[in-house]
Amino acid sequence: MAGVGAARGQMIHRLALIVSVLACLVAATGRADAHPHVWVTMTEELLYAADGSVTGVRHAWTFDDMFSAFATQGIEQKTKGTFTRQELEPLAKVNVESLKEYAYFTYAKVNGKRQKDAFAEPVDYWLDYNAKETVLTLHFTLPFKNPVKAEALEVEVYDPEFFIDFGFAEKNAVRLVNAPARCTASIEKPHDDNFPATLRLDQSFMTSEANIGMGASFANRISVKCP
Fold it and tell me: Are 211 and 34 in contact, with CB atoms under 8 Å apart?
């Protein structure tokens, strides 16, 4: 039970989704093992201006059902079994504010060069709840501080500490919104036979088998070419 409590505490510390229990759980927990405790399925949109520059990245991140159930504990609801966007609004605000510490798990390369601090603070953020699948989805847009107009753009999404395992949705994972006709997009997530990206690990997978910083090896990459 202590291990479960520690994992839950770190989960809240990393995403800060439940303010009311944050202090209690974080105070009781140490560092979580370097393997995934939260799974996120992503759909992504790259937003283009009329001049062909990329102005931002629009995320839609769906959390796994176990985490979604934990995250929604204690939230008042008018209709049992579901949550409105308004009921989830405080949760969404805490979410995006807390993710700033982790650079929103989003990184950009322009013509092969890493762009440090490329994104401004999120806009247009909200959470919604799928009552049938019992999962939360966080929507938010990260504007580029300076719109990007380049032949090659890469956007990567990953948690460097591999506490969260991000993965593209099986269908319609990436869309270019209002992009020039010449632009094309591809996606990539490196595969390691010793650590399949689709594997959900239990607590027997210890830090001897996974190292802090390994998350970059499992980065989800969007590559856009505009020749």
Answer: yes
Is residue 185 within 8 Å of 123, Cβ to Cβ?
no
DSSP string, 101-158: GGGGGEEEEETTEEETT-B---EEEEEEEETTTTEEEEEEEEEEEEEE--SEEEEEE-
Tell me the per-residue pLDDT of 168-186, one tens digit each, with 9 for 90 and over.
999 999 999 999 999 999 9
Q: Rounded CA gap, 176 and 119, in Å?
A: 18
Token digits of residue 79: 């209709």
- The encoded tokens of residue 74 equal 């204690």
CA atoms of 139 and 65, how far apart (whole Å):
17
pLDDT tens column, 185-195: 999 986 544 44
The pLDDT tens digits for 31-58 are 344 456 889 999 999 999 999 999 999 9
77 close to 83: Cβ distance less than 8 angstroms = yes
Closest CA to 140 of 130, 128, 132, 149: 128
Cα end-to-end distance, the chain, whole Å: 55
The three-point CA angle 110-113-117 to 5° equals 80
Question: Residue 118 is which amino acid?
Answer: A
What are the tokens at 67? 């985490």
Element (H, E) at 63: strand 54-63
